[in-house]
Amino acid sequence: MRSIVSRRFSLKSTVLGLGLLAAAPTLWAQEQVLNLYSARHYQTDEALYANFTKATGIKINRVDTDDAGLLARLKSEGSASPADVILLVDAARLWQAENEGLFLPVKSELLEQRIPVNLRAKAGAQGTAWFGFSTRARVIVYNKINVNKADVQNYQDLADPKNKGKVCTRSGSHPYNLSLFGALYEHLGAAQTEQWLKGVVGNMAREPKGGDTDQIKAVASGECGIALTNTYYLARMMRSNKPDDRAVVEKVGVVFPNQQSWGTHVNIAGGAVARHAKNRDNAVKFLEYLSSPEAQVYFANGNNEWPTVPGVKPSNPALEAMGNFKMETIPVSTVGANIGKVQQLLDKAGYK
Ligand code: FE
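# fe (iii) ion complex -> structure
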């Protein structure tokens, strides 16, 4: 009897033991993860993500694509989307994605404390839909030989007849321009913005084409006298190893417009929690991590931008060379809300 009982016990304990062994790998397999859809692709981001995993144990799975591809993918995946965090560049795109219901608003004391109110979405009852983590300015570049610096001090100068035949831009409907025009709409109102757009079209040296870097090169070559660019494209060329790039930037002057009035237009790269995030807590943790001083420096430097968190200084020689400037203070969320109106005005002005 005794032996049978003991055998039974031993059998039970063996089953129990096997059960525990079988359960253990399952527990390990449920590691903490975060699925990140990013429109940013910079080498320094690798270190950023590695540091987050080191600090939290949360592994990051990345899907890298451009902004348009990322949003299309998110929409087609719908509620089955594995995305937890979305990183996008440009306030216009963030605003649009928010309004298409692609984000899950967040309530985070830390983010609200650290990210300035004008550099995040307008808060609703459910929380804030997105937060800016770096800023870039949209500046005027001019040919130092053909253009007088005094003639390009303000965005308004781009529409002034004194600059006829000199202005070049990328497409008016590119998000960088839409955001700038949305900001101008806020400062100038509908009628004056329409006038301004018509004036810019009338001053063009050529039809809108290419990206910001192409505009800088065309200004250096003299094909254009004046153009608009985001600061990081300039900084990238200033820091380039290629002598050709540095020769280009030496030929162009840079103006931070509207220093005597409302300040230079700034845009953001920002992040949000995806509407159907399966790892919401990890997603919020990641956004909070991006607002930490060490992550801010990395995130901003990855694309030669400025950190959004006050008091965090970038260690970037190209940005330092550009100096300090006065930024406009209107909320970037307002800029997004103006874009529909701006698109109608672009059509009226014949701005391609
Ligand atoms: Fe860009």
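# post-check
The pocket of fe (iii) ion is lined by residues 230 (CB under 6 Å).
The chain has two domains: 32-134+267-315, 136-264+333-349.
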